[in-house]
Amino acid sequence: MQKVYPDPRAALAGLLRDGMMIMAGGFGLCGIPEQLILAIRDSGVKNLTVVSNNCGIDGVGLGILLDSRQIKKMISSYVGENKTFAQQYLAGELEIEFNPQGTLAERIRAGGAGIPAFFTRTGAGTQIAEGKEQREFDGNRYVMERGLIADLSIVHAWMADTEGNLVYRKTARNFNPMMATAGKVTVAEVEHLMQPGQINPDHIITPGLYVQRLVHVPNAVKHIEQRTLRKRTAPAGTGEEV
Amino acid sequence: MQKVYPDPRAALAGLLRDGMMIMAGGFGLCGIPEQLILAIRDSGVKNLTVVSNNCGIDGVGLGILLDSRQIKKMISSYVGENKTFAQQYLAGELEIEFNPQGTLAERIRAGGAGIPAFFTRTGAGTQIAEGKEQREFDGNRYVMERGLIADLSIVHAWMADTEGNLVYRKTARNFNPMMATAGKVTVAEVEHLMQPGQINPDHIITPGLYVQRLVHVPNAVKHIEQRTLRKRTAPAGTGEEV
Amino acid sequence: MAWTREQMAERAAKELRDGFYVNLGIGIPTLVSNYIPRGMSVQLQSENGMLGFGPFPYEGEEDPDLINAGKQTVTEISTTSYFSSADSFAMIRGGHIDLSILGAMQVAENGDLANWMIPGKMVKGMGGAMDLVAGVKKVVVVMEHSAKNEPKLLKNCTLPLTGAGVVDMVITDLGVFTIDKKGGGGMTLIELAPGATLDEIRAKTQASYHIANVL
Amino acid sequence: MAWTREQMAERAAKELRDGFYVNLGIGIPTLVSNYIPRGMSVQLQSENGMLGFGPFPYEGEEDPDLINAGKQTVTEISTTSYFSSADSFAMIRGGHIDLSILGAMQVAENGDLANWMIPGKMVKGMGGAMDLVAGVKKVVVVMEHSAKNEPKLLKNCTLPLTGAGVVDMVITDLGVFTIDKKGGGGMTLIELAPGATLDEIRAKTQASYHIANVL
Question: Complex ipTM above 0.95?
Answer without folding.
Answer: yes
